[in-house]
Amino acid sequence: xxxxxxxxxxxxxxxxxxxxxxxxxxxxxxxxxxxxxxxxxxxxxxxxxxxxxxxxxxxxxxxxxxxxxxxxxxxxxxxxxxxxxxxxxxxxxxxxxxxxxxxxxxxxxxxxxxxxxxxxxxxxxxxxxxxxxxxxxxxxxxxxxxxxxxxxxxxxxxxxxxxxxxxxxxxxxxxxxxxxxxxxxxxxxxxxxxxxxxxxxxxxxxxxxxxxxxxx
Length: 216
Prior knowledge:
mainly alpha; globular
């Protein structure tokens, strides 16, 4: 398979997932606006575009697009990782081994953790299959509060979100490297990626920690 094509689809799918993470994190912060606002947000996502497409159709189109991007990103990244592990560009190799970050050394492992976490998240809060007693469809505020009042769910999300942000941090700057950006641009992208990953982590984990510390 053409390596340039692989790099492009990996970068594009990764960027789509990165934007989704930011939007998802911002949506989660509506929890702090109270039950009515948070539940209304969940209802809005399902009712958006229903006058043209039907109830929740737009949401399912987005979900399927997201799933396609996720699967595409996984396969393209694994193939590229296997190719790059044998022969890396010199400047990327310098950053890679000099920094020796956890995310760079264990990229594939982190990706597998993220994949497992996404499956858990869907079964937990989207479909309610592995939710603690008290789950109510579309009662998102209630479901989130019940879950993160328990230490087990807090730990699971702490592990999953941390793995995701490490993965995003590395993936952001390595995309520039794999697409042939200059050494200085890659270094700058790596710095931006660190701050972006930290902000995303704080946005995602602020709600679980708040619930566990103050509402459990």
